[in-house]
Structure prediction request, 146 residues.
Amino acid sequence: MKIIKRTLLLLAVIFLPLAHATQEDPDKRTTVYLDAEERNIVLAEMRTFLSTLQQITQGVATDNMQLVETSAKTMGQDASGGVSLSLIFKLPLSFKLFAADTHQQFDQIALDASSLADRDHTLEQVSVLMQNCVACHAMYRIEKED
Ligand code: HEC
Prediction:
């Protein structure tokens, strides 16, 4: 009996740390810690990204290049409302570069929609732009700091 107990204890000592290791966070994205207000600003901007993309694709689908231009313009480089210095400081450099490039691409979509008014071209631009959405989402997540 004693030997069985000892063996069990030994096994527990060996395998418990392993069991613990498998409980580590399966989400391997880099966590960006923001306070509640900053997190809200970033996520609200994300939802605006999504609704703007909806407007742009609607504009392409209905051949309304005016809609493409005006909606894309709202997410251009002038759209950095509410971004404080502290938030800029907390965001990793590559996050900021991705964000800046995304705004720049929205500006280009707006410009080309007005000068070229070519739906195929806009659609191609949207597919390139969305690679930024995909890439950044694969890299980062946001948590509220304590
Ligand atoms: C600079 C990096 C970055 C870019 C570029 C980016 N996102 Fe995000 N987005 C994030 C992060 C980080 C989150 C939070 C994810 C998490 O915590 O799991 C997020 C969350 C979101 C959410 C969820 C918002 C909520 O209320 O929870 C939406 C929708 C979204 N993004 C849409 C987009 C779209 C559409 C694009 C492209 C036009 C885009 N994002 C580009 C980083 C980015």
